[in-house]
Amino acid sequence: MPILRPTTVWFAAVLALAALRGGPGRADDDEAAAVRRLLDAQVECWNRKDLDGFLDGYERGPGVVFQSGAERFEGFDALRSRYRKTYQAEGREMGRLAFSGLDVVVLGPDAALARGRWQLLMSDGKRPGGLFTLILRKLPEGWRIIHDHTSS
User: Domain 26-150 is in which class?
Assistant: First the structure.
């Protein structure tokens, strides 16, 4: 019998809960559209080289988590530092961002899951990309990403 990690069990429970909720209703459609607008705004900000605007899509608190590869960053300040170091440090570039295959699942009135593909087009023609899974929470200021797991 395989050993399940707590995060694996939690993620499976979230997906099972989403499946049990049945088909989306009108309210779910509206909330999914709001999440898509947030992600579209992130792409627009990124492509204007507005990293702070891009980061507005994340919860600005100590609980936000970004995971990629073997690295985990906890808290908004750590997340922002990671993005600046990776995409705005000397000799680095942001490239042009595109999301595709976007799927938004509304899990409840204040929780959603988004998953899809990301791709950058760099000035040298390279096209790094990968998959992402986001967990979002609806806060007073609107939908915000509270957990980002991105692969490359």
Answer: alpha beta
Tally of CB atoms within 10 A around 28: 19
pTM reported for the whole predicted model? 0.82
Integer Cα distance of 20 and 12 in angstroms = 12
CB 132 within 8 A of CB 46: no
Note the pLDDT tens digit of each residue in 17-46.
555 454 555 678 999 999 999 999 999 999
* Distance between CA atoms of residues 19 and 145, nearest Å: 21
Cα-Cα end-to-end distance for the chain: 30
- Beta strand 65-68 with 71-74 is antiparallel
110: three-class secondary structure by DSSP: coil
Domain chopping of the chain, boundaries: 26-150
